[in-house]
Amino acid sequence: QVQLVDSGGGLVQAGGSLRLSCAASGSFFSVGSMGWYRQAPGKQRELVATITSGGSTNYADSVKGRFTISRDNAKNTAYLQMNSLKPEDTAVYYCNARVILAPGLRDYWGQGTQVTVSS
């Protein structure tokens, strides 16, 4: 069994900061790419940022320069530091991880954490 738990959301004023965490636990060989996605009401889920096990990162244009994704491989945990938050960043944020099992691999999702940015 593999569990992916994301946390750290909350209510913040525009211009503020939040830090999300995503921890993978259970029985697996290793964790490959990890990432954050978000879904606002009435909209499709969209990519926010991803990071490979080697540390290569990718960001949506809308968050470049404001958000930073990082990870601690020893803890199988990824982080999303969100600065200069805007009301349009309001969404449920979901963590994703590609977990290498023995054998095979599988994508897992966290339960989601709400981020609300007030103007």
Which key terms come to mind for this protein?
119 residues, four-stranded antiparallel β-sheet, 0% helix
Summarize the structure.
The protein has 119 residues and is mainly beta. It has strands at residues 2-7, 10-13, 18-26, 30-39, 46-51, 57-59, 67-72, 77-82, 91-100, 105-109, 113-118. The protein has no helices and eleven strands.
How would you sum up this structure, described in words?
With 119 residues, this protein is mainly β. 0% of the residues lie in helices and 60% in strands. It has no helices and eleven strands. The strands form two sheets. Strands 2, 4, 5, 6, 9, 10 and 11 form a seven-stranded mixed β-sheet that branches. Strands 1-3-8-7 form a four-stranded antiparallel β-sheet, with no helix packed on it. The protein is elongated, with a radius of gyration of 14 Å. The mean pLDDT is 96.
